[in-house]
Design a protein that fits this description.
The protein is an alpha+beta fold and about 240 residues long. Helix content is about 30%, strand content about 30%. The chain has 8 helices and 15 strands. A hairpin with a 2-residue loop joins strand 4 and strand 5. Helix 4 packs across helix 5. The radius of gyration is 23 Å and the shape is elongated.
Length: about 240
């Protein structure tokens, strides 16, 4: 159970009145997380969080690969960007070690901000700073992890393209009439019987693979399913269900 002293230890709330500290301690959620547990996943509902103990990892799926963007230590807050923009969380927050986190939902946060405007100003300033960092990530032009040569009406090619798109894997699709075929596929046009042919970022070529083979080669974690679908887990947090091909 949270106490006023727990809340006061967070620099953002250190200047609140004793009454406001008590109210916040009673209304906020007290989360105890084991290592690897998410305080909030990517796409989670907006709220303001403060780290009381432990260490929180900021993670985001970029091109289908989980990427660590930073860390939050005791006293730090997170959730300022979703609260400021009114959007879901742009990345997940996960306990790197056993951690304790305070969660303040949006309604509770705005009630605090109404009585303590300096809290709102500090949260907004931090949000602007971190939005700049997210914009830098978004501005990076992703290189395709897979280049696919396939026939336009080939159902296997269509299924593989759908699989790559659903799992946020950047890819480039070339057909026999692609104007840049000679430059982007210098090894020469594959024969139709081998299509689709995929060239991976390490230069390896694989011919007519199924989705499971592609997932294994590009490092997606696979969990078999007994139904007619395979479940591919990306970054331990999201999954796409795809028909076996």
């Amino acid at each position: 159970m949270l106490t006023a002293n727990d809340v006061r230890a967070i620099p953002l709330f250190s200047t609140l009145s004793e009454l406001d500290l008590e109210r916040l301690a009673l209304s906020a959620a007290d989360l105890h997380l084991g290592a690897g547990e998410f305080a909030v996943p990517e796409g989670g509902e907006r709220a303001l969080y403060a780290v009381i103990a432990g260490k929180i990892e900021v993670v985001k799926l970029v091109d289908g690969i989980e990427r660590t963007l930073g860390w939050r230590i005791p006293g730090a807050i997170f959730g300022e960007v979703p609260l400021t923009l009114g959007t879901p969380f742009p990345g997940g927050r996960r306990a790197a070690i056993p951690s304790r986190v305070m969660r303040i939902d949006a309604q509770q946060y705005y009630a605090v901000a109404a009585t303590a405007p300096d809290v709102s100003l500090k949260v907004s300033a931090l949000a602007r700073e971190r939005i700049g960092g997210l914009q830098g990530i978004a501005a990076e032009a992703p290189k395709p992890r897979v280049t696919m040569f396939g026939l336009r009406w080939d159902s296997v090619c269509t299924d593989l393209r759908r699989f790559l798109a659903r799992n946020q894997i950047t890819y480039e699709w070339l057909t026999p009439d692609s104007p840049e075929l000679g430059r982007k596929w210098p090894a020469g046009r594959p024969v139709d019987a081998d299509c689709p042919v995929l060239r991976l970022s390490d230069g390896a070529l694989i011919s007519r693979p199924n989705a499971r083979e592609v997932a294994e080669r590009i490092g997606l974690q696979i969990r078999p399913n007994l139904a007619e679908y395979d479940t591919v887990i990306v970054g331990g947090a999201r999954c796409s269900r795809i028909r076996r091909i």
